[in-house]
Amino acid sequence: MRKQIFRWMTGAFVFALPVALQAQKKDNTLTGKEKNDGWVLLFDGKTTNGWRPYQNKPSDGWAIENGTLYCKEKDVQHRADLTTTAEYADFELAFDWKVAKGANSGLIYRADEKHPASYESASEYQLIDDLGYPGKLEDWQHSGADYDMHPPSKIASKPAGEFNHSVIKAKGKHVEHWLNNVKVADYEIGTDEWKALKEKSKWKDIPGWGENASGHICLQDHGGGIWFKNIKLRKL
User: Which ranges of the chain does DSSP label H, i.e. alpha helix?
Assistant: First the structure.
């Protein structure tokens, strides 16, 4: 009798475990602890509330697909980055993303809208198919890089088609990039090292580039082939 009871209880536990795991993995939601810690969702998995095209340009390149924000690869007439309506200064931003084979994109933070493109005012967290991109990549073009400035300390991304988890921590002039639980970039805005890198970058002739104390978060439309979910932020 005891054996039968044990077997039944074991079976119930095995059955219940996947259900519990599924509950933990529900996308685009916050746990009670996350809410208490100040996290807010920037994407609810169903609508684009809180987002709009960069500079309110015409855009038909974004869609909601299976609980993700998807940048379409085909049948797009007007492309534009997707931009938060709100601006953020000091924050911790977390998001999950995956790319199609060969795709290239990025997430720009503390951006203004004074230039034709979002990356012309602010730093970009690079998102790319590190293994399958058709061209040769410079070290500062790999996923997790502070694009054209600080290369990632290692290649930490997953193959195309698999979701990655990224975190950006921005507090004053100090910024960290994390990718799949690895800190891949760490820099201080305005230092001699930062200024020297800027002088060798694409941004050398743009006054004030990368120095905004606050700004928008922009999901880059670079030809499509990227999916975002679980986008959440807490102010620091």
Answer: 2-24, 32-36, 192-199
State pLDDT tens for residues 102-157.
999 999 999 999 999 999 999 999 999 999 999 999 999 999 999 999 999 999 99
Q: Which residues pair with 228 in a beta bridge?
A: 69, 97
On whether residue 164 sits in a domain, the answer given is: yes
Contact 139, 114 (CB under 8 A): no
CATH number where 226 lies = 2.60.120.560
Q: Look at phi and psi of residue 196 and say left if phi exceeds 0, alpha if psi is from -120 to 50, else beta.
A: alpha
Q: What is the span of the domain harbouring residue 38?
A: 28-235
Please give the Cα distance from 56 to 68 (Å, whole number).
Answer: 21
Q: Which residues contact 91 (CB under 8 A, 6 or more apart)?
A: 168, 169, 170, 233, 234, 235, 236
pTM listed for this prediction? 0.89
- The rounded distance, in Å, linking the Cα atoms of 209 and 57 is 22
Mean pLDDT of 73-95: 97
Whether 182 is covered by a domain: the verdict is yes
Mean pLDDT computed over every residue of the chain: 92
How many folded domains does the chain comprise?
A: 1
Contact status, residue 128 vs residue 156, Cβ threshold 8 Å: no
Which helix (H) or strand (E) covers residue 186, if one does? strand 182-188
211 CB-side CA count, 13 A? 11
CA nearest neighbour of 121 among 206, 1, 34, 25? 206
